[in-house]
Amino acid sequence: MSLSCACGSVEFQAFGHPILTSVCYCDDCQKAGHQIESLPQAPSVVGHDGGTAYILYRRDRVTCLRGSERLAEHRVEGEAFTKRVVAACCNSGMYLDFEKGHWLSLYRDRFRGQAPAVEMLIQTKYKPAETVLPQDIPSFSGFPLKFIGKIMRAKFEMMFGR
User: Fold this and answer.
1) Which residue in 75, 90, 122, 145 has the fewest CB atoms around it within 10 Å?
2) Nearest to 153 by CA among 13, 18, 2, 23
3) Is the overall model pTM greater than 0.90, yes or no?
4) Is 64 exposed, middle or buried (0-12, 13-18, 19+ CB in 10 A)?
5) Which domains does the chain have, with CATH numbers?
Protein backbone atom coordinates (compact mmCIF):
# COMPACT_ATOMS: atom_id res chain seq x y z
CA MET A 1 0.00 0.00 0.00
CA SER A 2 1.28 3.46 -0.74
CA LEU A 3 0.70 6.74 1.00
CA SER A 4 1.70 10.26 0.15
CA CYS A 5 1.46 13.80 1.36
CA ALA A 6 -1.25 16.08 -0.05
CA CYS A 7 1.01 17.60 -2.72
CA GLY A 8 2.64 14.28 -3.67
CA SER A 9 6.24 15.30 -2.93
CA VAL A 10 6.61 12.70 -0.14
CA GLU A 11 5.72 9.07 -0.75
CA PHE A 12 5.94 5.95 1.39
CA GLN A 13 5.34 2.29 0.66
CA ALA A 14 4.00 -0.07 3.33
CA PHE A 15 4.60 -3.75 2.60
CA GLY A 16 2.58 -6.75 3.69
CA HIS A 17 -0.42 -6.75 5.97
CA PRO A 18 -0.90 -4.02 8.57
CA ILE A 19 -0.78 -4.89 12.26
CA LEU A 20 -4.18 -3.24 12.71
CA THR A 21 -6.29 -0.22 11.83
CA SER A 22 -7.67 1.93 14.62
CA VAL A 23 -8.99 5.34 15.54
CA CYS A 24 -7.44 6.91 18.64
CA TYR A 25 -9.22 9.51 20.76
CA CYS A 26 -6.45 10.16 23.31
CA ASP A 27 -5.60 13.69 24.43
CA ASP A 28 -2.16 13.62 22.78
CA CYS A 29 -3.52 12.58 19.38
CA GLN A 30 -6.18 15.29 19.54
CA LYS A 31 -3.73 17.97 20.69
CA ALA A 32 -0.99 17.05 18.21
CA GLY A 33 -3.50 16.68 15.39
CA HIS A 34 -4.92 20.15 15.98
CA GLN A 35 -1.40 21.60 16.19
CA ILE A 36 -0.54 20.04 12.82
CA GLU A 37 -3.84 21.24 11.33
CA SER A 38 -2.98 24.80 12.42
CA LEU A 39 0.06 24.81 10.10
CA PRO A 40 -0.41 26.66 6.78
CA GLN A 41 -2.46 24.68 4.23
CA ALA A 42 -2.32 21.53 6.38
CA PRO A 43 -4.92 18.87 5.54
CA SER A 44 -7.10 17.45 8.30
CA VAL A 45 -5.59 15.03 10.79
CA VAL A 46 -8.34 14.76 13.40
CA GLY A 47 -11.72 13.46 12.28
CA HIS A 48 -14.96 15.36 12.84
CA ASP A 49 -15.59 13.09 15.86
CA GLY A 50 -12.26 13.95 17.54
CA GLY A 51 -10.54 10.69 16.59
CA THR A 52 -7.37 10.16 14.58
CA ALA A 53 -7.37 7.17 12.21
CA TYR A 54 -4.17 5.14 11.92
CA ILE A 55 -2.95 2.07 10.10
CA LEU A 56 -0.21 0.41 12.14
CA TYR A 57 2.67 -1.27 10.31
CA ARG A 58 5.86 -2.87 11.49
CA ARG A 59 8.68 -0.36 11.23
CA ASP A 60 10.67 -2.73 8.99
CA ARG A 61 7.82 -2.79 6.46
CA VAL A 62 7.64 0.95 5.79
CA THR A 63 9.96 2.68 3.32
CA CYS A 64 10.16 6.29 2.21
CA LEU A 65 10.33 6.20 -1.59
CA ARG A 66 10.87 9.91 -2.08
CA GLY A 67 10.89 13.18 -0.18
CA SER A 68 12.60 12.08 3.05
CA GLU A 69 14.44 15.41 3.13
CA ARG A 70 11.04 17.13 3.44
CA LEU A 71 10.06 15.30 6.63
CA ALA A 72 9.95 17.25 9.89
CA GLU A 73 9.37 16.12 13.47
CA HIS A 74 6.58 17.51 15.61
CA ARG A 75 6.37 16.78 19.34
CA VAL A 76 3.56 17.79 21.66
CA GLU A 77 6.15 18.07 24.45
CA GLY A 78 9.94 18.28 24.11
CA GLU A 79 10.78 15.01 25.89
CA ALA A 80 7.80 12.96 24.67
CA PHE A 81 8.38 9.35 23.57
CA THR A 82 6.15 10.00 20.60
CA LYS A 83 6.71 12.24 17.64
CA ARG A 84 4.53 13.04 14.69
CA VAL A 85 6.25 13.30 11.33
CA VAL A 86 4.96 15.92 8.91
CA ALA A 87 5.73 16.47 5.23
CA ALA A 88 6.90 20.08 5.50
CA CYS A 89 6.19 20.78 1.81
CA CYS A 90 2.42 20.83 2.45
CA ASN A 91 2.21 20.20 6.22
CA SER A 92 0.59 16.78 5.81
CA GLY A 93 0.78 14.58 8.89
CA MET A 94 2.40 11.33 7.72
CA TYR A 95 2.81 9.16 10.81
CA LEU A 96 3.11 8.85 14.56
CA ASP A 97 6.31 7.26 15.83
CA PHE A 98 6.36 5.75 19.33
CA GLU A 99 10.15 5.73 19.44
CA LYS A 100 10.41 2.79 21.87
CA GLY A 101 8.14 0.71 19.66
CA HIS A 102 8.66 -1.54 16.67
CA TRP A 103 5.79 -0.07 14.65
CA LEU A 104 4.69 3.15 12.97
CA SER A 105 1.15 4.49 13.13
CA LEU A 106 0.55 5.85 9.63
CA TYR A 107 -2.22 8.39 9.18
CA ARG A 108 -5.00 6.48 7.42
CA ASP A 109 -6.10 9.49 5.36
CA ARG A 110 -2.70 9.62 3.64
CA PHE A 111 -3.19 6.22 1.96
CA ARG A 112 -4.09 6.19 -1.71
CA GLY A 113 -6.78 3.85 -2.86
CA GLN A 114 -8.92 1.87 -0.49
CA ALA A 115 -7.53 1.71 3.04
CA PRO A 116 -8.39 -1.22 5.32
CA ALA A 117 -11.53 -0.85 7.41
CA VAL A 118 -11.18 0.44 10.96
CA GLU A 119 -11.00 -2.50 13.36
CA MET A 120 -11.34 -0.71 16.69
CA LEU A 121 -11.75 2.62 18.43
CA ILE A 122 -9.29 3.15 21.30
CA GLN A 123 -8.86 5.60 24.18
CA THR A 124 -12.52 6.56 23.85
CA LYS A 125 -12.58 7.88 27.42
CA TYR A 126 -10.97 11.03 25.95
CA LYS A 127 -13.44 11.52 23.10
CA PRO A 128 -15.28 14.85 22.95
CA ALA A 129 -18.49 14.74 25.01
CA GLU A 130 -20.68 15.35 21.96
CA THR A 131 -19.18 12.45 20.00
CA VAL A 132 -21.48 9.49 19.46
CA LEU A 133 -19.44 6.41 18.62
CA PRO A 134 -20.56 4.06 15.85
CA GLN A 135 -22.09 0.84 17.11
CA ASP A 136 -20.62 -1.37 14.37
CA ILE A 137 -16.96 -0.93 15.43
CA PRO A 138 -15.67 -2.23 18.78
CA SER A 139 -14.73 0.64 21.10
CA PHE A 140 -12.49 0.61 24.16
CA SER A 141 -11.83 3.21 26.84
CA GLY A 142 -8.12 2.30 26.87
CA PHE A 143 -5.84 -0.12 25.03
CA PRO A 144 -7.65 -3.46 24.74
CA LEU A 145 -5.92 -6.82 25.06
CA LYS A 146 -6.55 -7.45 21.34
CA PHE A 147 -4.60 -4.27 20.48
CA ILE A 148 -1.68 -5.22 22.73
CA GLY A 149 -1.76 -8.81 21.44
CA LYS A 150 -1.47 -7.71 17.81
CA ILE A 151 1.42 -5.38 18.67
CA MET A 152 3.23 -8.18 20.53
CA ARG A 153 2.61 -10.69 17.76
CA ALA A 154 4.22 -8.30 15.27
CA LYS A 155 7.25 -7.98 17.59
CA PHE A 156 7.67 -11.76 17.76
CA GLU A 157 7.33 -12.06 13.99
CA MET A 158 10.08 -9.47 13.58
CA MET A 159 12.32 -11.29 16.06
CA PHE A 160 11.94 -14.56 14.19
CA GLY A 161 12.25 -13.08 10.71
CA ARG A 162 8.69 -13.61 9.58
Assistant:
1) 145
2) 18
3) yes
4) middle
5) 2-159 (3.90.1590.10)
